[in-house]
Amino acid sequence: MKxxxxxxxxxxLVFMVSDLHLARAQVASPTPxxxxxxxxxxxxxxxxxxxxxxxxxxxxxGAAGGGDWDDFTGNDAFLDLDTETxxxxxxxxxxxxxxxxxxxxxxxxxxxxTSIDLAVSPGPEDEPTARLYSSPTTFTPNQSEGPFxxxxxxxxxxxxxxxxxxxxxxxxxxxxxxxxLEDATDDPFHFDPAELVSAGGLLTAxxxxxAIAAFAPLPLIVPxxxxxxxxxxxxxxxxxxxxxxxxxxxxxxxxxxxxxxxxFSTGLSVLLRDSNSEEVLEIQSINSTTNTVTMTANxxxxxxxxxxxxxxxTGLITSLxxxxxxxxxxxxxxxxxxxxxxSNWAGGMLFVATFGIALLIATGIASGxxxxxxxxxxxxxxxxxxxxxxxxxxxxxxxxIVVLLATVWVVRTVPx
Length: 416
Fold this sequence. Notes:
By secondary structure, the protein is α+β, with helices and mostly antiparallel strands. Helices cover 32% and strands 20% of the residues.
């Protein structure tokens, strides 16, 4: 009897855990539950790849309870990319509850290995379809919607497909805003007019969250749809200053083949970057016929189209996030110098500092007044600016500092 009493807490715990498990498995699927529209594209990151962009809604109002998705997460739902004949090609999950965008992506090799057949002649087509369903391990019974027809919105080549994709993403995010306008409930899944898409027709800081959560490379391939480009790829970022690589670039050689080499010029400093590596290079020559950019030095790292390798003008990437902490103090100094417009900033500033200090000391000793030396320093900087070592705005900044210091010195030395 005593043994049974001792075992009672353990038995009670087992019963409670079992009861919780049963209760979890018997939860009914929340509603509403929608796969609203879906579009597919080829030739997005490379020729013959395949992208599906979809808009969904896992209904939520920001308050627990009520039979909607507020008590669950996007991990409690799944989406399948299927062929028309029912073969599952890829499975993913919604980024979040509420309204949102989600994507499937297959590179050219993976897409060729599927049975998806967009236009077969002779023989039947096997068009792609989509299915949205709640987790069968969480919900009993689980809900399912589909097969859902995926509409073609693709272009005939990379440029045309990206143009169509950019316009479609803007339209999808605008639909999320338009169909979920703010009301008296004031929940996080309703939006003010122009909150997601600006009056100028670009994705705002809030709107680009939906786009990037669905397909992270969007800022690289359709940067012109983002209003808040500083938070994505750098200040004043635009299509004019970037080109995606169309072929892998191996280390130990100097050639990089890009989509459009005409956006760069000889002598330009550029950043070659993919999701694994990056390095700063200088362009030696450009072959506009083959879109081959040749650097002054061989590449240290290898870059691949699968890792979304791009070539970017370095003046536009100051807001890029560091990779594994490789950017440190030197980069901060370079960023400050670049913000002043310094070209040969290291040599120029070293010359100005050394010669200016020497002149300050010499003038002070000769005249008995370091004020004259301080006044001579801006003159040295003006000469450096005229020589092209530093810009005029750097001269003005230093001149203001020198005048302030000289004023303080005079005030402190003049008898009261």
